[in-house]
């Protein structure tokens, strides 16, 4: 591998960002690129700056590519998540759309309080079940 200065192009929805002068190791045989941790962190910080727009400027619905960017996965992973039922979306014609607040609750589940029962009733039931399982394990050990 040889160290070179390259240009990385990234996108967020309809926007495209080109970062020039990135130091990377490039394989001369296959063209594979390997980045240093500092370079990756710098690009993540730049991307995060664009992603952290005010709430009223964010689109309510995202397409597959935007969803993949938000979740930091490939588009194929998004399609696999749809197929397995882990990701809920709506199909408009040939394109999938995802509600941003649903995606954000996947990323930060502790902030999705509205969808949860905040009473301690379920916690107490769960604790009782776990205690019973622990007692059975101790008897059999």
UniProtKB/TrEMBL annotation:
InterPro entries: DNA-bd_dom_put_sf, HTH_17, SinI_DNA-bd. It comes from the Bacteria. One of its GO terms (molecular function) is DNA binding. Residues 61-108 form the Helix-turn-helix domain. This is Helix-turn-helix domain-containing protein. It comes from Agathobacter rectalis. NCBIfam families: excise.
């Amino acid at each position: 591998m040889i160290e070179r200065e390259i240009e990385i192009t990234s996108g967020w929805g309809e926007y495209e960002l080109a970062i020039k002068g990135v130091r990377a190791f490039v394989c001369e045989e296959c063209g594979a690129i390997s980045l240093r941790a500092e370079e990756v962190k710098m690009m993540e910080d730049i991307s995060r700056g664009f992603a952290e727009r005010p709430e009223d400027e964010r689109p309510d619905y995202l397409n597959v590519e935007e969803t993949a960017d938000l979740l930091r996965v490939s588009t194929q992973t998004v399609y696999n998540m749809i197929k397995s039922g882990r990701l809920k979306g709506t199909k408009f014609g040939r394109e999938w759309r995802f509600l941003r607040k649903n995606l954000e609750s996947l990323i930060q589940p502790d902030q999705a309080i509205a969808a949860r029962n905040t009473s301690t009733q379920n916690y107490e039931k769960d604790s009782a079940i776990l205690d019973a399982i622990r007692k059975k394990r101790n008897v059999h050990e």
